[in-house]
Disulfide oxidoreductase (Staphylococcus saprophyticus subsp. saprophyticus), 103 residues
Amino acid sequence: MDKVSVVVYGADVVCASCVNAPTSRNTFDWLQPLLKRKYPDKQFEFTYIDIEKDVENLTDHDQQYIERIQEDELFYPLVTMNDEYVSDGYVQLKDITKFMELQ
């Protein structure tokens, strides 16, 4: 069985440029059942990282994404799968499925 690591980077406050978008936590909660239902043959590992609170014991990889969000290069919520950038800001299902089809 293939394992897919899904990480959502976010914060409690909705991203300023993401008006009407779901919160980071809502995006995280939405992705879990969706991916399990859509790809039952895959095993998923889900992680939520609060970019303002979960700042200790992060990998360099995680830290780089957080810095890019803080420098406004990327928006949150930001979704990575198997350490690859998938989508940020207003996360769309098509971005997620496009990544999964390449796996």
The domain at 3-102 is CATH 3.40.30.30 (Glutaredoxin). The helical segments are 24-38, 60-70, 93-101. The radius of gyration is 13 Å.
